[in-house]
Amino acid sequence: MSGFHILGAAIPILPYFLLATYAAALVSITLTAIALFSAGAFKTAVTGKRWQWSGAEMVMVAAVAAAVGFAVGRLLS
User: Fold this and answer.
1) Spatial contact of 57 and 36, defined as CB atoms under 8 Å apart
2) How far apart are CA 67 and CA 55, in angstroms?
3) In whole angstroms, what is the distance from residue 24 CA to residue 30 CA?
4) pLDDT, one tens digit for every residue, the chain (77 residues)
5) 7, 34, 38, 58: which has the fewest C-beta neighbours closer than 10 Å?
6) Range of the domain at 66
7) Into how many domains does the chain fold?
8) Which letter, b or e, does each residue of 36-49 get, where b requires 16 or more Cβ atoms within 10 Å of its Cβ?
9) What CA–CA distance (Å, rounded) separates 32 from 27?
């Protein structure tokens, strides 16, 4: 199981080792969104929902969490 944690953590971080900052940010966001969508689509094997909705839901929840985290960071800095 820890291998999946390492893989999940590596997806948004690896582009920063390989690319310039702006390009790395774009690649990181894109790869993370693809990974989240895939995980959401995959969970439909258990939930029975439509895979498109489940994938989009996972991306939306993560985007809201990231926005809230960013906002709290800005408020506290």
Assistant:
1) no
2) 19
3) 10
4) 688 888 888 999 999 999 999 999 999 999 999 999 999 999 998 888 899 999 999 999 999 999 999 999 999 98
5) 7
6) 2-76
7) 1
8) bbeebbebeeeeee
9) 8
